[in-house]
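Problem 12. The chain below contains 134 residues. Write out its predicted structure in token notation.
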Amino acid sequence: MPLHLTKVAFGCHSADYLAERLRARAEEGPLFLSTRYLPKRHEEVAGQGSLYWIIKHQLVARSAILHFGEAEGGRVAIHLDPTLMLVLARPKRAHQGWRYLEHADAPADLVGEAGGVADMPPALVGKLAELALI
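Solution.
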């Protein structure tokens, strides 16, 4: 079972805006986040886990984690797939840095979701999730 990470999408007010930021950064070169320390359980995460993004106290989307590498200043780079996958929104408290998320606790992807939720605009999905309607 893969292991995942969660992280607050700082400065992002919607999944649409986050997707736009990730696309723009991917055009400049490899997409990665830097962190101070290599996760102790990085082998369980790399290549099979995802980074789940928290926006407005909800897990709303994920980016596949490709691998870990080196960044400037002795930091660690978490290399991400620039494709943002929306997930069934679920409450999650904000935190600093990243945290582990077990696969069994990870929200399901919206692709192929019954009821047409995957076809809705991300902003609408976020509003419905805030109201606990989905």
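Discussion. The chain has a mean pLDDT of 88. Students who got a different answer should revisit the alignment rule from Section 12.3.
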